[in-house]
Design the sequence.
């Protein structure tokens, strides 16, 4: 086909791409965000080893993308990378729908609704994550499969094989897209008896798996972001099979299964709003009647995606379930297009005015969806994770040990060090010290701080206590947590210093530490308001500010600094209401009245 007609044919896809790329870039987070954002950004920037399964393709392509944009924040570049991949995915969806015989208007509407998807599609389009690249590969593979289905040219089988193999370096969920590949291989054997083509396709799908050599190279470099051990074949196998998370596999009880189902339905409905969810269900019925084979394939993809999510995870992971269910949303978009196409054909046959009316109602519903999704996903001025890390780091002296807890704190701390900020701090993840591989990796990097004899000690609390004992005489130690539930930790006291806590021996005079602390006057406190952020994980960071202010204020109060304590508790209430803070503030006020009288 000549270039001009091809451009004209694909003009809607180009417009969709430009529109959504602009939208996603505008609403993208300006730097690191919550969840795995900090960890993944640190791994990409240092070409390090991220958590299993390592995502080698994303690591390498992400690094290349950041090198193409050498100026500015690395995490922001990776946020833009997610926006680019998702915008391309929306355009690829339009091309897929046209290949399935849908009209331009139906395909455009379904693609727009898909692009405005609140919890998953748009949510993954503006942060550092490995889910946008999985969506991208899903739509490429579906487009190739439909091309193969329409003419069964072996070149499409070969292309599917290569790209499927590559996609497995993004996220393990891409194994679901092995279902169409198996269908293609089965047809080659059953119908055509082409065993040569079969073996060739299998080899082509396996060759890209050589990308997993990256994991070994990343491990040997032992950068600030080295999660796990792949030093031996056994270690490598345990890593890619996620042995560290074995307690999450097939762990759901009956009650947990019901909760999983309820959460899944909630996400499915809220992704596109209730009216469009009803239309999706009607569209599935139409799809089943018009294209039974396609319907069965798509349902099998949805079922496989949901089954993997059901078998992996526990109740604590349910709030992040939406990250992993992009494949079902592609199927939802196809169902929308089938419904719209059928509806428009019926309406246009009767009356043109009816067609315009229906189109108007759909655009009103899209407007309502956009309003809700924009409020949820507009992160262009969201600096809370970045500011939290900067604030915490500013409270820590040089050459100190910092014990972190939780992905929203540990990951960003790793990221800061990956961009050469506060490399003088030794970061130790309180969540990971349970693993022997983590102790071994730390001992290689910090042999003067971590003794390999620690491997003989069992339990997180016991290992942390041993680290305290070995280092507290010559290094300052800070932590996010303000306590350690361990019988051997009674020799230590946690003194609140802003967002962090200084760990000292019990007989230390903490009054001097408190009087020298000026953290809260110097912190960046941009948009620190409870219930300000739609993302629950991010909003929890504002709650932590309240928690930290309360602890610091009460520490001042218990040591006789009533005015300072009152100031900090009132500052906590400025962020959000909290009954404990209110109760503590009243206690200080009563104490001041007693002293006055």
Sequence:
């Amino acid at each position: 086909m000549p270039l001009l007609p091809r451009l004209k044919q694909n003009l809607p896809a180009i417009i969709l791409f430009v529109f959504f790329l602009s939208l996603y870039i505008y609403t993208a987070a300006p730097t690191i965000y919550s969840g795995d954002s900090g960890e993944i950004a640190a791994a990409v920037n240092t070409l390090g080893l991220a958590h299993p399964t390592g995502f080698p393709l994303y690591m390498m392509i992400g690094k290349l993308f950041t090198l193409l944009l050498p100026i500015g924040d690395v995490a922001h570049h990776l946020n833009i990378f997610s926006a680019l991949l998702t915008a391309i995915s929306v355009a690829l969806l339009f091309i897929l729908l046209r290949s399935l015989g849908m009209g331009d208007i139906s395909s455009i509407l379904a693609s727009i609704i898909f692009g405005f998807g609140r919890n998953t599609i748009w949510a993954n389009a503006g942060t550092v994550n490995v889910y946008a690249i999985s969506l991208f590969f899903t739509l490429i593979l579906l487009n190739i499969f439909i091309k193969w289905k329409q003419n069964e040219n072996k070149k499409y089988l070969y292309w599917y094989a290569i790209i499927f193999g590559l996609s497995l370096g993004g996220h393990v969920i891409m194994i679901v897209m092995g279902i169409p590949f198996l269908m293609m291989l089965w047809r080659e054997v059953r119908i055509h008896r082409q065993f040569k083509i079969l073996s060739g396709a299998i080899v082509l799908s396996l060759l890209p798996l050589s990308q997993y050599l990256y994991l070994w190279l990343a491990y040997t470099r032992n950068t600030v972001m080295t999660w796990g051990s792949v030093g031996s074949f056994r270690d490598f196998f345990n890593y890619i099979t996620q042995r560290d998370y074995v307690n999450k596999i097939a762990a759901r009880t009956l009650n947990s299964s019901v909760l999983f189902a309820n959460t899944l339905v909630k996400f499915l409905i809220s992704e596109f709003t209730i009216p469009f969810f009803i239309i999706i269900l009607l569209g599935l019925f139409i799809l089943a009647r018009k294209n039974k084979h396609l319907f069965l394939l798509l349902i099998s993809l949805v079922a496989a995606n949901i089954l993997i999510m059901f078998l992996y995870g526990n109740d604590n992971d349910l709030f992040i379930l939406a990250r992993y269910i992009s494949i079902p949303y592609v199927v939802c978009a196809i169902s929308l297009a089938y419904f719209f196409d059928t509806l428009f054909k019926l309406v246009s046959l009767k009356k043109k005015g009816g067609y315009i009316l229906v189109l108007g109602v759909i655009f009103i519903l899209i407007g309502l969806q956009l309003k809700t999704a924009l409020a949820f996903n507009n992160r262009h001025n969201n600096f809370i994770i970045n500011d939290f890390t900067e604030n915490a780091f500013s409270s820590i002296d040089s050459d100190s040990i910092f014990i972190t807890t939780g992905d929203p704190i540990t990951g960003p701390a790793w990221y800061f060090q990956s961009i050469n900020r506060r490399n003088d701090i030794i970061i130790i993840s309180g969540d990971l010290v349970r693993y022997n591989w983590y102790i071994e990796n730390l001992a290689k990097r910090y042999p003067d701080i971590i003794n390999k004899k620690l491997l003989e000690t069992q339990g997180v609390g016991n290992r942390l206590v041993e680290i305290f004992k070995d280092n507290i005489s010559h290094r300052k130690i800070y932590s996010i947590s303000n306590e350690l539930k361990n019988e051997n930790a009674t020799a230590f006291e946690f003194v609140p210093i802003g967002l962090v806590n200084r760990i000292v021996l019990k007989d230390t005079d903490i009054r001097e530490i408190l009087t020298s602390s000026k953290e809260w006057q110097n912190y960046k406190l941009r948009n620190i308001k409870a219930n300000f952020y739609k993302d629950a994980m991010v909003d929890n960071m504002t709650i932590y500010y309240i928690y930290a202010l309360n602890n610091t204020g009460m520490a001042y109060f218990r040591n006789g600094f009533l005015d300072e304590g009152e100031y900090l508790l009132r500052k906590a209430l400025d962020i959000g209401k909290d009954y404990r803070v209110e109760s503590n503030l009243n206690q200080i006020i009563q104490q001041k009245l007693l002293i006055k009288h």
The chain has 26 helices and five strands. The mean pLDDT is 91. The two ends are 93 Å apart (CA to CA).
